[in-house]
Structures are given as C-alpha cells and as structure tokens.
Amino acid sequence: MRVVHPDHPLIDHKLTYLRDKRTDSPTFRRLAEELMTLLAYEATRDVRVEPFEIETPVAPTTGIKLSNPKPLIVPILRAGLGMLEGMVRLLPSAEVGFLGMQRDEETLAITTYANRLPADLSGRQVYALDPMLATGGSMADALRFLIERGADDITAVCLLAAPEGIARLEREMAGVLPPVTLVVGAIDEQLNEHGYIVPGLGDAGDRLYGVV
Ligand SMILES: O=P(O)(O)OC[C@H]1O[C@H](OP(=O)(O)OP(=O)(O)O)[C@H](O)[C@@H]1O
Ligand SMILES: O=c1cc[nH]c(=O)[nH]1
Ligand SMILES: [Mg+2]
To answer: What's the Cα-to-Cα distance from 20 to each of 49, 73, 132, 200, rounded to whole Å?
Structure first.
C-alpha cells in the first residue's frame, strides 16, 4: 500500500482548528471540506485522463480531459459525508456512491448498514472518503467491498490516521489487487484504550452531525 502524507502548512493549520474542541459544528464542517479539497489535489494526481483537441483563440492545441468512466467517489457514512463536497468541488463530473458503516463503541466491530454503489465497479477509479482511520476496521471492510465489486484503482482519503490503522490496512491489503493508495492529512501518535485516535479530534461523525 502506498501511503501519501502531503506536507503543507495550510493542511496543518486547518487540522489544528479541526482538532480544537472549541470548534463548533458549522466551522468543523467547513474545515473538513476545505481539508478534503487540499488532500484531493494529491489524491487525484493519477486520475485518468485522455488527450482532448481544442482550439484556443490563437491556435489548435491538444489538452487533456478526464476519461470515461468518470471516477466514483464513495463517502463512508456518516463522517465521510463531511468530506464529499470538498472532493466534488475538484471533480464535479464524478459519480457518488455510498457506504454506511458503524463501529460498535464497545467491541470496535464494524457493521455495514447501507450500500448504494454500482453493482459492477470494474474499470472504475474509486476514491473512498472517511476522516478517521483508527483501528482500520471500517476502511478495511470498505476496501474489500469495493474490490469484490471489481474496482481496479482505489484511493482512500482520511483526514487523520493512527499508526495502528495504517499497519492493519498494510497487513490486510498486502498482495491484494489492485494496490491501494492511502492519502492522509496527518498520522497521529496512537490509539487510546477506547480505540480513539490520540490526540485526534474526538468522534468525527458527532462533531459534524451531532451525538446520536
Ligand atoms: O478505523 P475504525 O476503528 O474502524 O474507526 C473509524 C470509523 O469510526 C468512525 O465512524 P463511526 O462508526 O463513529 O460512524 P459515524 O461516522 O456514523 O459517526 C469514523 O468515521 C470511521 O468510519
Ligand atoms: O478517534 C476516532 C476513532 C474512530 N472514530 C472517530 O470518529 N474518532
Ligand atoms: Mg462516529
């Protein structure tokens, strides 16, 4: 698995405010979107393109445009929804599929409660969005789901990751095709005894949408 950790002061600046427990929900949502847009720049570095003939007012020239089928963006509900707008802003012609996953706060086991994806993802470039990679259980299940449906190019984008979550994805994705790329805004210190990222930002879904 290729891990990409872009080093940019604006990412660190926005992450600092996102982490701050005094940041209210509207500001948290705006920052999550802005961070996604910054990470999308790196995450889409290998987006598929093809030559495109145009004429400028001065001369004909060959540019590029996104290839078909267009990329598929998959936010992992709930918290991944907070990153969707930031990604769509850069890829407005992309399609969007949804995966709903919930982690049991006691056992840390994952349940998939919703799935609205094209049945056949073969030939698709897929971007899976989830702000938090903690134990890695949710993202590992999401990646397996996408691979089983034929996705042949997958990039996972997370705002924060724990080293334990990265190690788990590396273990579970070793030798699996297609190889997965992971783009992360920051790699934090560790998980605590409740499976929360330290220092982290708390529960991303609750901070975006409220405690339910
Ligand atoms: O790496 P893991 O240990 O699996 O933890 C990460 C998952 O936990 C959070 O989701 P949560 O289950 O809280 O659902 P929510 O987004 O609806 O709040 C987060 O958004 C990830 O999906
Ligand atoms: O720190 C964490 C871990 C899992 N899910 C979150 O929202 N935050
Ligand atoms: Mg949550």
So the answer is: 39, 28, 16, 9
Mutation test residue for ligand 1: of 25, 81, 84, 138, the one with most atoms within 8 Å of CB: 138
* pLDDT attached to residue 177: 87
User: Which residue, 154, 140, 131, is CA-closest to 108?
Assistant: 140
pLDDT band at residue 212 under the 50/70/90 scheme: confident
Measured CA distances, 88 to 34, 41, 134, 192 (Å): 11, 12, 25, 33
Pair 101, 52: CB distance under 8 Å? no
| Residue ranges with CB less than 5 Å from ion ligand 3 | 203, 205
Is residue 206 part of the annotated active site? The answer reads yes
> Is the pTM higher than 0.80?
yes
